[in-house]
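Example 3.2
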Amino acid sequence: MGRWEGVAKSNEWYTPKYIFDALECEFDLDVAAPVERKHCHVPAKAFITENSLLVDWYGFIWMNAPFGNRNGLVPWLDKIRLHNNGIALVPDRTSAPWWQRAAKQCDAIFFINHKVRFVKPDGTTGDSPSCGTTLFAYGEIAKCAFMKAQANGLGIVLRRKLGYSDSGNSLIAYEPFTFYSSDQATNTLGIRWKQQSESPTMISVGR
């Protein structure tokens, strides 16, 4: 799992298991994983533990990347946009330029309906954070996972829709997804069901 870092802080925070239970999907790769995964719950087949920005990503990815300064997520969001197949977890900083930019570039936005209390490396639960949590979807599998999470009561999802203004200029709008049951979401886009990997792969690149 990745690191959740506030401005001027550097701590590891892991996504709680119920987030993945709501998404109901399996990832090919966790691109910001800690070396010690005892208290991590990312359902991924492989894990990158160092210098993820320097290696190629593949498949459907999960990204809870380091957030060490005000623009710390920018290179990560740029890379997942180019990869275009995965889910990014970020702070709900809707007024930040990087958040605004990512919202215009992703395929769907998921607003979790409560403040997520992340898990510490020792397995204990952290305090309630100062802001909420956003998930950005890139690609069809991620959008389908958002539909499932909405059906499972985790929050609401808005999908990006390209339209045109009265003057003929292109614009980006957002609209709610039609409410699906979990089974309907599966049948709609054929999402892969979550499966436990027998032998997860750890990928580490030297500094």
